[in-house]
Amino acid sequence: MNNYIKSFTKKMDKLLWKEEFTNIIYLHDKEDNERLDQVIFLKKKNEDVVGFYIRGNNPLISVNKVYSLDDFNLYATYDELIEYEEKNFKLFKTECIRLYFNPDYNELLGIFLSDIDGFSSLIILFLQDEIQIVNDCKISDIDSVFEKFFLQVSVGNIIVYEKINPKNVWMLL
Is 126:52 a contact under the CB 8 Å cutoff? Predict the structure, then answer.
């Protein structure tokens, strides 16, 4: 595990591990009601958030709501933003995390989050200038999701680290 991957595993431990998520928050530009596809926020049960922003190869991460502190500098481009929450999002506690890294570069391609049984899950895919979300994806279907979105990377070569309860350690798969 190189230092780049260690850094991300530490961030995910602190921000996502054993957290209960109640929803996904999307931002829309109030002027044209267009969704900003480069940013999302995961809403925790305690109303805190974990935000992800992509513009290039790696996501920026924030624990601040956009109205509190604009860590992603969105107000440089947009005058007013509106929050929308995902409909029919299932509450789940993160007891399995998988991180997917590009084998050739220090680049996080995606994050898989699920409860211990895999009944509720979420994949966050970091494309060059947008974030794609796939809800309730089975672990057995992850390869097909990556094949659909990451044509430039061979799925068999992607570096995957997993942390699953009760082991509580990061393992290379």
Answer: yes
Judged by DSSP in three states, 140 sits in helix
> Sign (positive/negative) of CA torsion 134, 140, 142, 143?
negative
The pair of three-digit structure tokens given for residue 149, joined into one six-digit string: 């979105």
Residue 155 CA to residue 63 CA, distance in Å, equals 31
Q: With 0.85 as the threshold, say if the pTM is over it.
A: yes
Q: Pinpoint the alpha helices (H) of the chain.
A: 3-15, 142-149
Q: What pLDDT, in 10s, does the model give residues 76-91?
A: 999 999 999 998 898 8
Report CA-CA distances (Å) from 162 to 13, 34, 81, 128, 149.
11, 35, 35, 23, 21
Q: What is the DSSP string of 124-138?
A: EEE-SS-EEEEES--
Do 65 and 131 touch, CB atoms closer than 8 A?
A: no
